[in-house]
Design goal:
The complex is a heterodimer. Chain A is an alpha/beta fold. Helices cover about 35% and strands about 20% of the residues of chain A. Chain A contains 20 helices and 22 strands. In chain A, the strands form six sheets. In chain A, strands 1, 2, 3, 4, 5, 6 and 20 form a seven-stranded mixed sheet that branches. In chain A, strands 8-16-10-11-12 form a five-stranded parallel sheet. The longest helix of chain A is centred in the last third of the chain and has 19 residues. By secondary structure, chain B is mainly β. Chain B has one domain: 2Fe-2S iron-sulphur cluster binding domain, sarcosine oxidase, alpha subunit, N-terminal domain (Ubiquitin-like (UB roll), Roll). Chain B is globular, with a radius of gyration of 13 Å. Classes of the chains: A alpha/beta, B mainly beta. At the A-B interface, strand 8, helix 5 and strand 9 of A face strand 1, helix 1 and strand 5 of B.
């Protein structure tokens, strides 16, 4: 384990996030002779898609599938690349001067970088339904994390609900692991398939097509799949029932999922310009073809640059790293980025179909009434809508009115909901409404951690008499 | 809510509100609590209602617990250690403690 005190004061390249983009970027840069450090806040590398890749207790390789185990090569390459990989390292600030604030085991350091690649990936889109804050309601990604990293499978009466490729993948993995799932409630609007038709040719030549069909067949053969228009979690202190379209089923665990969206907090706080993506219904950074953001020296690679999946994330990491190496060490030899660009294009070719086919229904993104919109501060959809009616025009003003987005998650679980609710109520677009203004620290840190920052003699004298 | 696929791995003991629970090396605090059948890890500051881990990937902050005396730690990011003392957080009361 690397400790904070063992870190250098500066690195040529700082990579933030140890998923496919971060691992591929750090590997390529370190192999080209660039002094590289990779910070990741989880106990092990792999990010979410390859979670627990170096340590998973799941021995039967068929359970998680070949696409998961493909992450092993990325992890091995990164570990032997010469890059310093630091897990349990939480990055809480990044600014336009390329100063990176990081905390490791309660000790903080400010590191100076010459280039930064933000590879903070994605998170699951908020799924604000009645009762989604009850114990017993989790994201599908959470169940997948517990399976990959700790070998846990759902027990008791389990219901899955939502839409999107990851939900089907998890369903298949859980079936293979021997879990019993009562039902999969499919919230995908049926009209989506018609809207997605124009994108079918590209999807059919992408690697996703045959994989997707196989997955759907595997799950539908072994699980009850019910198309639904509404889902509610019911219970007093914990989940006891799932209600859908007027039907009720007793349940101990409800797993929700309706796609993933970029985890934008660090990139926005660093000052990188972001814009609304109307096909993926989320904010994403504005980037050039080398994934450089609007802040000089900061690139954003992986799903944080817009959702495209794990293999695409690795290619984006490589492209960003080649650009970083060329800027830092023009004489170093790097691979031809065209190879990565071609691979990326293949991976991205089927994405438009998936985005349209699995576009979550308005009703599941724009809640009403007493449904919680902001989990941390327990702000309801009605409160947000009422304040929008009163003249509150944007998410930052809404914070001042209601405290939404001001809890510990810093808007990660409500940001998109608040933006969409304001847009809905004021008959405008999310692009017009905008997103929360995010500032460092992007993860809560203690005063003790701040106080652990080394100070120079001059800094000490400036405040001591 | 959850069970383990098999019984492999080194076990260790930590306490949650003084009660010992068994965990495996490789568990995070949040997962160890889920595997032990503990159905919530905190109550909320506003409405004083129970919460359990929601995302297990460090973004939702619903798994906040006190670990070895330090409050508001994200249980899903902290690996378990032998003898660790975990306390559930009581939302409304916390401010006056």
């Amino acid at each position: 384990m690397t400790e904070a005190s063992e870190l250098a004061a500066s690195y040529e390249l700082v990579v933030i996030g140890g998923g496919p983009a971060g691992l591929a970027a750090a590997t390529l840069a370190a192999q080209a002779g660039v002094q590289t450090v990779l910070f990741d806040e989880n106990p092990g590398i792999g990010g979410q898609i390859y979670r627990g890749i170096t340590s998973t207790p799941v021995r039967d390789r068929a359970v998680l599938g070949d696409d998961y185990w493909a992450g092993g090569a990325l992890a091995d390459e990164a570990r032997t690349s010469g890059a310093l990989i630091v897990n349990g390292a939480t990055v809480w600030t990044l600014d336009p001067t390329l100063t990176v604030g990081v905390s490791i085991a309660g000790k903080a350091r400010l590191i100076q970088a010459k280039r930064v690649i933000v590879a903070t990936g994605s998170l699951e889109r908020p799924f604000p339904i009645p009762g989604w804050t009850l114990p017993g309601v989790m994201t599908a990604g959470a169940a997948q994390t517990a399976l990959k990293a700790q070998g846990l499978v759902p027990a008791g009466r389990t219901v899955m609900a939502g839409s999107g490729p990851l939900l089907w993948l998890l369903a298949a993995q859980l079936i293979r692991a021997g879990a019993k799932i009562e039902a999969l409630l499919d919230t995908t609007p049926r009209l989506n398939w018609l809207r997605a038709l124009p994108f079918t040719p590209d999807f059919m030549i992408s690697p996703l097509w045959s994989k997707g069909l196989k997955l759907l067949r595997e799950v539908k053969a072994k699980m009850l799949v019910i198309p639904v228009g509404s889902v509610e979690a019911v219970g007093s202190d914990k989940l006891s029932e799932v209600v859908f379209d007027g039907r009720r089923v007793p349940a101990d665990l409800l797993l929700l999922h309706q796609g993933v969206v970029p985890n934008v907090n660090l990139a926005i706080a660093a000052g990188a310009e972001h814009r609304w993506n109307s096909r993926q219904l989320c904010f994403e950074p504005v980037l050039d073809r080398d994934f450089n953001s609007s802040v000089p020296g900061i690139a954003v690679a992986g799903d944080g640059a817009g959702i495209a999946g794990g293999p695409a994330a690795a290619e984006r990491g490589r492209i960003a790293a080649i650009a970083a190496v060329r800027a830092l060490k023009p004489s170093a030899s790097v691979p031809d980025p065209q190879t990565a660009r071609n691979a990326l294009q293949r991976e991205e070719s089927g994405r438009a179909f998936l985005d349209v086919a699995y576009r979550p229904a308005d009703a599941f993104r724009r809640p009403t009434g007493e449904t919680i919109a902001c989990r941390c501060e327990e702000v309801t959809a009605k409160q947000v809508r009422d304040n929008a009616d009163l003249g509150c025009e944007g998410p930052n003003q809404m914070k001042a009115f209601l405290r939404c987005g001001m809890g510990p998650c810093q808007g990660r679980l409500c940001g998109l909901t608040i933006t969409e609710l304001i847009a809905d109520q004021r008959h405008t677009t999310p692009a017009e409404v905008g997103y929360y203004r995010l500032r460092p620290p992007v993860k809560p840190i203690t005063l003790a951690e701040l106080a652990s920052l080394p100070i120079s003699e001059a800094e000490r004298k400036a405040v001591e008499r | 809510m959850f069970k383990r696929l098999d019984d492999a791995g080194t076990t260790m003991t930590l306490t949650v509100d003084g009660t010992p629970i068994r965990a495996r090396s490789g568990d995070t605090v949040a997962v160890a609590m889920l595997a032990a059948g503990i159905d919530h890890c905190r109550t909320t500051p506003v409405n004083d209602v129970p919460r359990a881990p929601y995302c297990l990937m460090g973004v939702c902050f619903d798994c906040l617990v006190t670990i070895d005396g330090v409050g508001s730690r994200q249980g899903c990011l902290v690996p378990v250690r032998e003898g660790m003392k975990v306390e559930t957080q009581l939302g409304k009361r916390e401010a006056g403690r």
